[in-house]
Amino acid sequence: QVQLVESGGGSVQAGGSLRLSCAASTSTRGYCMAWFRQAPGKEREGVAYIYNGIGSPYYADSVKGRFTISQDNAKNTLYLQMNSLKPEETAMYYCAAKRGAGCLVPLTSYTYWGQGTQVTVSS
Q1: Distance in Å from the first CA to the final CA of the chain
Q2: Environment class of residue 107 by beta-carbon count within 10 Å: exposed (0-12), middle (13-18) or buried (19+)?
């Protein structure tokens, strides 16, 4: 069982930056870790994925070059650095985890979820 707790959300103006954190209750070695987001009235979508801090992370096209996913295994913490934020990226951001490799799978394959942290970007 992995418990995930996100933090770092808030309100920023367009073009601003935020860094989200996701603290895991146990080691996530051997897990895919991901950030998803869900805007009001829209489906939840994957933003960034990373496997155990190994190899290249994967980003949704809409965030490439602006968002960076990383993790500190010593702290069991996942991060999402978000730069040049846009108003349309206002959403609840969720951290998720699944055991094993193969991160680019439907969100239903992710077993563990945090409660989410709200990001609001104003124009």
Answers
A1: 40
A2: middle
Q: Which two tokens stand for residue 66?
A: 């602006």
What mean pLDDT do residues 81-98 have? 98
How big is the CA angle at 28 (ends 117 and 113), to the nearest 5 degrees?
Answer: 35
pLDDT tens for 14-60 read 999 999 999 999 999 999 999 999 999 999 999 999 998 677 899 99
Asked if 35 and 95 touch (Cβ cutoff 8 Å), the reply is yes
Q: How far apart are CA 16 and CA 3, in angstroms?
A: 29
Rounded mean pLDDT, 113-118? 98
Closest CA to 33 of 77, 81, 93, 64: 77
Query: Which residues contact residue 64 at a Cβ distance below 8 angstroms, ignoring those fewer than 6 apart?
Result: none
Written as six digits, the tokens of 13 are: 């103006």
Residue bearing tokens 């933090």: 7
